[in-house]
Amino acid sequence: MRECPRNIEHVDTIGDLRRNLVMAESRFPKEAAAMLRNLETAGNPWGVPQAQRADWAQGLGVRVWAPGEEPPEVLYWVGCAASFDDRAKRIARAMAEVLSHAEVSFAILGEREGCTGDPARRMGNEYLFQTLAESNVATLDEAGVRTIVASCPHCFNTLRNEYPDYGGAYDVVHHTELLDSLVRSGRLSPGGREELLTYHDPCYLGRHNDRYDAPRSLLSAVPELRTVEMPRHRERGFCCGAGGARAFMEEKRGTRISHNRLNEAIGTDASGVAVACPFCVTMFEDGVRALNVEERFAVLDIAEIVAAAILSS
Protein backbone atom coordinates (compact mmCIF):
# COMPACT_ATOMS: atom_id res chain seq x y z
CA MET A 1 0.00 0.00 0.00
CA ARG A 2 2.84 2.39 0.82
CA GLU A 3 4.67 1.83 -2.46
CA CYS A 4 1.73 1.45 -4.88
CA PRO A 5 1.70 4.34 -7.39
CA ARG A 6 -2.05 3.85 -7.95
CA ASN A 7 -2.94 4.00 -4.23
CA ILE A 8 -4.49 0.54 -4.30
CA GLU A 9 -5.39 -0.38 -0.71
CA HIS A 10 -5.15 -4.13 -1.05
CA VAL A 11 -5.07 -4.83 2.70
CA ASP A 12 -8.67 -3.66 3.12
CA THR A 13 -9.70 -5.76 0.12
CA ILE A 14 -8.05 -8.86 1.64
CA GLY A 15 -10.00 -8.20 4.85
CA ASP A 16 -13.26 -8.07 2.89
CA LEU A 17 -12.41 -11.32 1.10
CA ARG A 18 -11.68 -13.03 4.40
CA ARG A 19 -14.97 -11.85 5.88
CA ASN A 20 -16.83 -13.41 2.99
CA LEU A 21 -14.94 -16.69 3.26
CA VAL A 22 -15.42 -16.96 7.04
CA MET A 23 -18.91 -15.59 7.56
CA ALA A 24 -20.64 -16.52 4.28
CA GLU A 25 -18.84 -19.69 3.23
CA SER A 26 -17.34 -20.98 6.52
CA ARG A 27 -14.04 -21.60 4.76
CA PHE A 28 -10.90 -21.00 6.82
CA PRO A 29 -7.84 -22.95 8.07
CA LYS A 30 -8.73 -25.62 10.60
CA GLU A 31 -6.21 -24.25 13.12
CA ALA A 32 -8.16 -21.00 13.18
CA ALA A 33 -11.35 -22.81 14.18
CA ALA A 34 -9.96 -23.56 17.65
CA MET A 35 -8.84 -19.96 18.11
CA LEU A 36 -12.24 -18.55 17.11
CA ARG A 37 -14.03 -21.06 19.33
CA ASN A 38 -11.84 -20.06 22.28
CA LEU A 39 -12.65 -16.40 21.67
CA GLU A 40 -16.36 -17.19 21.67
CA THR A 41 -16.38 -19.37 24.79
CA ALA A 42 -13.50 -18.07 26.94
CA GLY A 43 -12.89 -14.53 25.69
CA ASN A 44 -9.29 -15.19 24.68
CA PRO A 45 -7.49 -17.16 21.91
CA TRP A 46 -5.90 -19.60 24.37
CA GLY A 47 -9.19 -20.75 25.90
CA VAL A 48 -7.93 -20.18 29.46
CA PRO A 49 -10.60 -19.25 32.05
CA GLN A 50 -10.97 -15.49 32.52
CA ALA A 51 -10.52 -15.98 36.27
CA GLN A 52 -6.81 -16.60 35.59
CA ARG A 53 -6.26 -13.40 33.61
CA ALA A 54 -4.54 -11.57 36.49
CA ASP A 55 -2.51 -14.53 37.81
CA TRP A 56 0.66 -13.12 36.20
CA ALA A 57 0.55 -10.19 38.69
CA GLN A 58 0.66 -12.27 41.88
CA GLY A 59 3.09 -10.83 44.40
CA LEU A 60 3.53 -7.51 42.56
CA GLY A 61 0.87 -5.53 44.39
CA VAL A 62 -0.89 -4.58 41.17
CA ARG A 63 -4.29 -2.96 41.68
CA VAL A 64 -7.18 -4.72 39.96
CA TRP A 65 -10.00 -2.25 39.29
CA ALA A 66 -13.44 -3.22 40.57
CA PRO A 67 -16.82 -1.60 39.77
CA GLY A 68 -17.52 1.39 41.98
CA GLU A 69 -13.86 2.27 42.50
CA GLU A 70 -12.19 5.44 41.26
CA PRO A 71 -10.69 5.08 37.77
CA PRO A 72 -6.91 4.73 37.65
CA GLU A 73 -4.67 7.47 36.29
CA VAL A 74 -3.47 4.92 33.74
CA LEU A 75 -5.14 1.64 32.83
CA TYR A 76 -2.64 -1.03 31.83
CA TRP A 77 -4.27 -3.10 29.09
CA VAL A 78 -2.34 -6.34 29.53
CA GLY A 79 -3.69 -8.20 26.50
CA CYS A 80 -4.32 -11.92 26.08
CA ALA A 81 -0.72 -12.88 25.27
CA ALA A 82 0.81 -11.29 28.38
CA SER A 83 -2.05 -12.63 30.50
CA PHE A 84 -1.90 -16.28 29.44
CA ASP A 85 1.33 -17.07 27.56
CA ASP A 86 4.11 -17.98 30.00
CA ARG A 87 6.83 -16.19 28.03
CA ALA A 88 4.78 -13.05 27.46
CA LYS A 89 3.86 -12.86 31.16
CA ARG A 90 7.44 -11.75 31.77
CA ILE A 91 6.73 -8.63 29.70
CA ALA A 92 3.69 -7.77 31.85
CA ARG A 93 5.66 -8.31 35.05
CA ALA A 94 8.48 -6.10 33.76
CA MET A 95 5.96 -3.36 32.92
CA ALA A 96 4.34 -3.57 36.35
CA GLU A 97 7.72 -3.35 38.07
CA VAL A 98 8.80 -0.34 36.02
CA LEU A 99 5.50 1.53 36.47
CA SER A 100 5.62 0.90 40.21
CA HIS A 101 9.25 2.08 40.33
CA ALA A 102 8.23 5.31 38.56
CA GLU A 103 5.29 5.70 40.98
CA VAL A 104 2.72 5.70 38.19
CA SER A 105 -0.84 5.26 39.47
CA PHE A 106 -2.09 2.36 37.37
CA ALA A 107 -4.49 -0.54 37.51
CA ILE A 108 -5.57 -3.51 35.41
CA LEU A 109 -9.04 -4.88 34.70
CA GLY A 110 -8.18 -8.46 35.55
CA GLU A 111 -10.91 -10.86 34.49
CA ARG A 112 -13.03 -7.93 33.24
CA GLU A 113 -10.55 -7.41 30.39
CA GLY A 114 -11.47 -9.37 27.28
CA CYS A 115 -9.71 -9.94 24.00
CA THR A 116 -9.91 -6.78 21.89
CA GLY A 117 -11.13 -8.94 19.02
CA ASP A 118 -8.14 -8.24 16.79
CA PRO A 119 -7.53 -11.93 15.85
CA ALA A 120 -11.21 -12.37 14.97
CA ARG A 121 -11.31 -9.29 12.74
CA ARG A 122 -8.05 -10.18 10.94
CA MET A 123 -9.37 -13.71 10.36
CA GLY A 124 -12.62 -12.36 8.96
CA ASN A 125 -15.10 -13.04 11.77
CA GLU A 126 -16.51 -9.51 11.96
CA TYR A 127 -19.49 -10.46 14.09
CA LEU A 128 -17.26 -11.92 16.82
CA PHE A 129 -15.02 -8.85 16.71
CA GLN A 130 -17.96 -6.50 17.18
CA THR A 131 -19.28 -8.56 20.09
CA LEU A 132 -15.92 -8.41 21.88
CA ALA A 133 -15.42 -4.72 21.08
CA GLU A 134 -18.83 -3.67 22.41
CA SER A 135 -18.28 -5.64 25.61
CA ASN A 136 -14.88 -4.06 26.24
CA VAL A 137 -16.10 -0.54 25.47
CA ALA A 138 -18.91 -0.99 28.02
CA THR A 139 -16.37 -2.12 30.65
CA LEU A 140 -13.94 0.73 29.92
CA ASP A 141 -16.72 3.31 30.04
CA GLU A 142 -18.01 1.91 33.33
CA ALA A 143 -14.49 2.22 34.75
CA GLY A 144 -14.26 5.82 33.57
CA VAL A 145 -10.99 5.09 31.79
CA ARG A 146 -9.42 7.87 29.75
CA THR A 147 -5.76 6.83 29.37
CA ILE A 148 -4.76 3.31 28.36
CA VAL A 149 -1.26 1.88 27.95
CA ALA A 150 -0.94 -1.34 25.93
CA SER A 151 2.10 -3.58 25.52
CA CYS A 152 0.67 -5.37 22.49
CA PRO A 153 0.65 -3.34 19.25
CA HIS A 154 -2.38 -5.33 18.07
CA CYS A 155 -4.33 -4.23 21.16
CA PHE A 156 -2.90 -0.70 20.79
CA ASN A 157 -4.07 -0.45 17.19
CA THR A 158 -7.53 -1.85 17.89
CA LEU A 159 -8.18 0.28 20.98
CA ARG A 160 -6.84 3.42 19.34
CA ASN A 161 -8.14 3.17 15.79
CA GLU A 162 -11.09 0.78 15.78
CA TYR A 163 -12.90 1.17 19.11
CA PRO A 164 -13.95 4.79 18.37
CA ASP A 165 -16.39 3.28 15.84
CA TYR A 166 -18.11 1.62 18.82
CA GLY A 167 -18.12 4.68 21.09
CA GLY A 168 -14.79 3.97 22.77
CA ALA A 169 -12.78 7.21 22.62
CA TYR A 170 -9.65 6.88 24.75
CA ASP A 171 -6.11 8.21 24.89
CA VAL A 172 -4.19 5.08 23.96
CA VAL A 173 -0.38 4.86 24.11
CA HIS A 174 2.01 1.99 23.52
CA HIS A 175 4.19 0.95 26.43
CA THR A 176 7.35 2.15 24.68
CA GLU A 177 5.83 5.64 24.43
CA LEU A 178 4.94 5.75 28.13
CA LEU A 179 8.33 4.39 29.19
CA ASP A 180 10.12 6.85 26.93
CA SER A 181 8.21 9.76 28.48
CA LEU A 182 9.07 8.51 31.99
CA VAL A 183 12.77 8.37 31.10
CA ARG A 184 12.69 11.81 29.51
CA SER A 185 10.99 13.32 32.56
CA GLY A 186 13.56 11.79 34.91
CA ARG A 187 11.13 9.45 36.65
CA LEU A 188 13.14 6.49 35.35
CA SER A 189 16.93 6.36 35.21
CA PRO A 190 18.24 3.19 33.51
CA GLY A 191 21.60 1.74 34.50
CA GLY A 192 24.21 0.56 32.01
CA ARG A 193 23.92 -2.50 29.78
CA GLU A 194 26.93 -3.26 27.59
CA GLU A 195 25.45 -4.99 24.57
CA LEU A 196 24.79 -4.66 20.84
CA LEU A 197 21.15 -5.17 19.85
CA THR A 198 19.07 -4.72 16.72
CA TYR A 199 15.48 -3.51 16.87
CA HIS A 200 12.52 -5.00 15.01
CA ASP A 201 9.56 -2.73 14.16
CA PRO A 202 6.25 -4.50 14.91
CA CYS A 203 3.83 -3.95 12.01
CA TYR A 204 0.95 -2.63 14.09
CA LEU A 205 3.21 -0.20 15.93
CA GLY A 206 5.29 1.00 12.99
CA ARG A 207 3.68 0.52 9.61
CA HIS A 208 0.08 0.92 10.79
CA ASN A 209 0.62 3.68 13.37
CA ASP A 210 3.92 5.40 12.49
CA ARG A 211 5.43 4.77 15.92
CA TYR A 212 9.14 4.41 15.18
CA ASP A 213 10.98 6.81 17.46
CA ALA A 214 9.99 5.97 21.05
CA PRO A 215 11.43 2.41 21.04
CA ARG A 216 14.71 3.63 19.58
CA SER A 217 14.83 6.56 22.00
CA LEU A 218 14.36 4.16 24.91
CA LEU A 219 17.19 1.91 23.77
CA SER A 220 19.50 4.90 23.29
CA ALA A 221 18.71 6.03 26.86
CA VAL A 222 20.31 2.88 28.30
CA PRO A 223 24.00 3.67 28.91
CA GLU A 224 26.50 1.49 27.01
CA LEU A 225 23.73 -0.18 25.00
CA ARG A 226 24.48 0.04 21.28
CA THR A 227 22.05 -0.64 18.44
CA VAL A 228 22.36 -1.55 14.78
CA GLU A 229 19.56 -1.41 12.20
CA MET A 230 18.52 -4.31 10.01
CA PRO A 231 18.48 -3.63 6.24
CA ARG A 232 14.67 -3.48 6.37
CA HIS A 233 13.57 -1.14 9.13
CA ARG A 234 11.17 1.68 10.04
CA GLU A 235 8.76 2.31 7.12
CA ARG A 236 10.30 -0.58 5.17
CA GLY A 237 10.29 -3.04 8.06
CA PHE A 238 9.33 -6.70 7.60
CA CYS A 239 6.74 -8.77 9.47
CA CYS A 240 7.65 -11.32 12.16
CA GLY A 241 5.06 -13.70 10.72
CA ALA A 242 2.34 -13.31 13.37
CA GLY A 243 0.23 -10.67 11.61
CA GLY A 244 -3.23 -11.33 10.21
CA ALA A 245 -3.88 -13.90 12.99
CA ARG A 246 -1.11 -16.08 11.49
CA ALA A 247 0.30 -16.53 14.99
CA PHE A 248 -2.42 -19.13 15.49
CA MET A 249 -1.85 -20.97 12.21
CA GLU A 250 0.94 -22.96 10.60
CA GLU A 251 3.11 -21.86 7.68
CA LYS A 252 3.47 -24.76 5.26
CA ARG A 253 4.91 -23.17 2.12
CA GLY A 254 8.35 -21.78 1.50
CA THR A 255 10.58 -20.26 4.19
CA ARG A 256 8.85 -19.27 7.41
CA ILE A 257 8.45 -15.50 7.65
CA SER A 258 9.86 -15.54 11.19
CA HIS A 259 13.00 -17.37 10.00
CA ASN A 260 13.41 -14.91 7.13
CA ARG A 261 13.30 -11.95 9.50
CA LEU A 262 15.35 -13.64 12.21
CA ASN A 263 18.17 -14.44 9.80
CA GLU A 264 18.23 -10.76 8.88
CA ALA A 265 18.56 -9.84 12.57
CA ILE A 266 21.34 -12.39 13.14
CA GLY A 267 23.15 -11.02 10.10
CA THR A 268 23.67 -7.67 11.85
CA ASP A 269 26.14 -9.36 14.25
CA ALA A 270 24.04 -8.17 17.20
CA SER A 271 23.78 -10.42 20.24
CA GLY A 272 19.99 -10.21 20.22
CA VAL A 273 16.87 -8.51 18.93
CA ALA A 274 14.80 -5.99 20.86
CA VAL A 275 11.10 -6.06 20.11
CA ALA A 276 7.97 -4.27 21.33
CA CYS A 277 5.28 -6.91 20.83
CA PRO A 278 4.57 -10.20 22.65
CA PHE A 279 3.73 -11.95 19.37
CA CYS A 280 7.07 -10.90 17.85
CA VAL A 281 8.77 -12.38 20.93
CA THR A 282 6.96 -15.68 20.43
CA MET A 283 7.71 -15.88 16.70
CA PHE A 284 11.39 -15.06 17.12
CA GLU A 285 11.91 -17.36 20.11
CA ASP A 286 10.38 -20.21 18.13
CA GLY A 287 12.80 -19.23 15.36
CA VAL A 288 15.94 -19.21 17.49
CA ARG A 289 15.09 -22.70 18.71
CA ALA A 290 14.47 -23.94 15.17
CA LEU A 291 17.71 -22.37 13.93
CA ASN A 292 19.70 -23.59 16.97
CA VAL A 293 20.99 -20.14 17.93
CA GLU A 294 19.54 -19.98 21.45
CA GLU A 295 22.96 -19.82 23.07
CA ARG A 296 24.13 -16.76 21.16
CA PHE A 297 21.04 -14.78 20.20
CA ALA A 298 18.51 -13.32 22.66
CA VAL A 299 14.96 -12.09 22.11
CA LEU A 300 13.82 -9.38 24.53
CA ASP A 301 10.91 -6.99 24.79
CA ILE A 302 12.01 -3.41 25.41
CA ALA A 303 10.09 -3.39 28.71
CA GLU A 304 12.30 -6.26 29.90
CA ILE A 305 15.43 -4.38 28.85
CA VAL A 306 14.33 -1.21 30.65
CA ALA A 307 13.26 -3.11 33.77
CA ALA A 308 16.62 -4.89 34.01
CA ALA A 309 18.48 -1.60 33.48
CA ILE A 310 16.39 0.17 36.13
CA LEU A 311 16.83 -2.56 38.73
CA SER A 312 20.59 -2.67 38.13
CA SER A 313 21.06 1.09 38.55
What is this structure's SSE topology?
Layout: H1 10-24, H2 30-42, E1 74-77, H3 79-84, H4 86-101, E2 106-107, H5 118-123, H6 126-143, E3 147-150, H7 153-162, E4 171-174, H8 175-184, E5 195-199, H9 213-220, E6 225-228, H10 257-266, E7 272-275, H11 278-290, E8 298-301, H12 302-312
Parallel strand pairs: 1-2, 1-3, 3-4, 5-6, 5-7, 7-8
Helix pairs in contact: 4-12, 8-9, 10-11
Descriptive notes:
The chain is α/β, with parallel strands linked by helices. The protein contains twelve helices and eight strands. The chain folds into two domains: 172 residues, Glutathione S-transferase Yfyf (Class Pi), Chain A, domain 2 (Up-down Bundle), CATH 1.20.1050; 123 residues, Rossmann fold, CATH 3.40.50. The chain is 43% helix and 10% strand. The strands form two sheets. The chain has a four-stranded parallel sheet. It has a four-stranded parallel sheet with strand order 6-5-7-8, sandwiched between helices. Strand 5, helix 9 and strand 6 form a beta-alpha-beta unit.
Stated plainly, the CATH topology of the largest domain is called: Glutathione S-transferase Yfyf (Class Pi), Chain A, domain 2
Please report the distance between the alpha carbons of the first and last residues: 44 Å
Total domain modules: 2
What is the overall number of helices? 12
Average residue-wise pLDDT: 92
- Strand order across the biggest sheet? 2-1-3-4
Work out the strand percent: 5-15%
Helix amount, in percent? 40-55%
Structural category is alpha/beta
CATH architecture of the largest domain: Up-down Bundle
Contiguous runs where pLDDT drops below 50 for at least 5 residues: none
User: What is the chain-wise order of helices and strands?
Assistant: HHEHHEHHEHEHEHEHEHEH
Question: Briefly, what CATH class of the largest domain?
Answer: Mainly Alpha
**How many E-type strands?**
8
Rg measurement, Å: 19 Å
Q: What overall form do the CA principal axes indicate?
A: globular
Q: Largest sheet, described in full? A: 4 strands, parallel
